[in-house]
Write the structure tokens for this entry.
Amino acid sequence: MNPSHTGANYSLLSGTRHREGNVYFPKVLAMPRRETVWVTVIVALIVLSMGPVRKRKEENLFPQFLLLAEMMEKIRSHYVEEVKDEELFQGALDGVVSTLDPYSQYLPPKEAEELQVDTEGEYEGLGIVIAIRNQQLTVITPIEDTPAFKAGVLAGDRILTINDESTEGITQENAIAKLRGRAGTKVTLSLHHESQEGSKDVRKITLTRARIEVQSVKGLCRAADGRGWNFWVDEAEGIGYIRVNQFQEKTMPALDEAMKRLTSNSSRDLKGLILDLRFNPGGLLNVAIEMADRFIRDDLIVFTKGRARDSFKKYLARSDDDYPAIPLVVLINKGSASASEIVAGCIQDRKRGTIVGSRSFGKGSVQSIINLDEAGDNHKLKLTTAYYYTPLGRNIHRTEGAKESDVWGVIPDVVVDLTPEELKELVQQRNESEVLRTPSAETRPAGGAESGPPGEAEPGAGPPSLPSGWTPDKQLRRAIEIFKSLNASPEA
């Protein structure tokens, strides 16, 4: 047999068939090595899928395997340029996973090694969290202290081009690879905010990549001594303020230190706390569980559920390490995702505090890292295996195509939306909060030499150092009003 590469590809599998179990296998006759490779591919696919096929006897998957092999061989034979087998297999594997959701991903050895970079929370890049939403590359949130945040990149910005290359059809992984790079190098983005649907208003900005090391716990502004943060938003009323930018390994010790600072004040009792989770894209699950545990005494914090039996897990609180049971307000916005939504959803369902702001992003899926042992060489599969549910059973995750009326994310108890202009002002205000201000340095620019050392929050001993004319943003102002109404004495 000497089949032609330009002829019908089914000749590669001509011959009699033999049966093994409930699956028919082609009997492979003598043929050139190239054809044998593809027959081996088909047989391997069928053998690997025999378990599922036997469980679902009504499905005959052999024609699909045959079609895949035939298509790949046609590409190898007839495509205008020579294509490497490795590239075809990579494309086929990527294609299978791309039919699922934006978060599932096949990881070849190089990308599997780079996965550790994401879990460690330090890398070189711009400092934005992205996702594919409605087939468009979208900013979930910029991360504080990063080039993207300082340049005014907003949650909800759609990235149209990266260095003048269109992002249409780009995968999340390829986008990350284009956005990251050595510190000091530049990248140009074209942005269009989702709130401006139908307009042609496109912003073009050039950013310089930097080493991203996020300080995860901050106060309202720098303390005057430059060693830490001021954690009071209204000390006269006893209202504390802590913002958490990410859930990292150092987050809980820093949060404990900030709470100690607020609760050990000899001159003022803490009567209420504002926990600001706006622009917080998430992070480590165990840190989110620990944070929620500090605010509730016991019972359920969050649970996961998927199709597999082992995907159902409950995460429970302990009652031995709680913060004082003071009134609590949690601020969220569309940049609050994942771990932030777990904490906010738990506090809301357990009626431990009031949620204020705008609806969260809706990133509540569990990605499991699965070793593909048959391939060797450290191939992995990052696969969505479950969703996160709040204590009352609300699914946090926003699936592709979900409507505003569907159940996803966390909807605040008190909805206070910001316009894009107000959002820009909030970002600018946060950038200014980094500046150390004293009576003799009122106008020192952001990022000056006295911005304070990097690292996690330390208890500041100095007085507040708010800029002249500072006023709280609309969402923060509403949170303060809630506490003042609670603290007001009832009329006789």
The chain has three domains: 9-83, 121-212, 217-487. Residues 1-34, 438-463 have pLDDT under 50 and may be disordered.
